[in-house]
Amino acid sequence: xxxxxxxxxxxxxxxxxxxxxxxxxxxxxxxxxxxxxxxxxxxxxxxxxxxxxxxxxxxxxxxxxxxxxxxxxxxxxxxxxxxxxxxxxxxxxxxxxxxxxxxxxxxxxxxxxxxxxxxxxxxxxxxxxxxxxxxxxxxxxxxxxxxxxxxxxxxxxxxxxxxxxxxxxxxxxxxxxxxxxxxxxxxxxxxxxxxxxxxxxxxxxxxxxxxxxxxxxxxxxxxxxxxxxxxxxxxxxxxxxxxxxxxxxxxxxxxxxxxxxxxxxxxxxxxxxxxxxxxxxxxxxxxxxxxxxxxxxxxxxxxxxxxxxxxxxxxxxxxxxxxxxxxxxxxxxxxxxxxxxxxxxxxxxxxxxxxxxxxxx
Length: 361
Known about the structure:
By secondary structure, this protein is an alpha/beta fold. It contains 17 helices and 13 strands. It has two domains: about 30-170, Nitrogenase molybdenum iron protein domain (Rossmann fold), CATH 3.40.50; about 185-350, Rossmann fold, CATH 3.40.50.1980.
């Protein structure tokens, strides 16, 4: 009788242990479904320990506080270029990541390398969900679509929040998303009621898109100027992005203020050498109202630079409205919130900094 009781207890113990093992196994393979910014439903592990970042998704992951979970990225991040603050701020970390794509305009994904690395998920920044589906089919790894198109777009904050949810950095992601929303609202509030007749006209030149451009390279719907309701003269053109204009057109506009990208001043100075009299005749040049706008279009949009550009342009164009804003303090607040470090000195050291510009030097 006693032996039967002992046997029953042993069997019961085995049953309990078996249940625990099964539960642990089930828990280990637990999954959930998230909806990415393109409306795609993606099944992912319940707990994501690591990820691969493609198509400049690493930038958004840095914003969301998930840097330490990146194990593979593109070759662009490995450079740690100061023109990409998120990569420069984490250059030592990215140096130890593996390249999973070339990045850049001719981006090519290294599908076999991704499979070998075997990440829990892939974050893919692109505007083409079909490419994401193709990569998921080739690798068998969940591909989550994210999209940071502009700093005043819901796609940016939605992407940051989604990444925070997937990687377990919700609090950091929320703080950054809320900060971005707050800056956009502040820029709008400071400038939306300024009458047009009190605004100077503006020409943004030497803008980069698909590479660098000289004095006549400009941009329609230039985000930092849109955010502060500036009168940007190229907006009257029949275009919606980067465009080359003639010198005659710029002379006809004769802007009150000119902004130039300091990273393209070699090209601007070539234009000046070829036609100094025309550029010198512009009112903004004669009055010394030529200022820097740091390039933010470098392997997609560096959002922190674009936001800082807006504050700098606002302080130049509307000094009374921005009288209570200390530009340097605001800029470092933005950089620290989004990439975790001061950055104005880095820009200055690399000749990308803010301030007045003298063409021809």
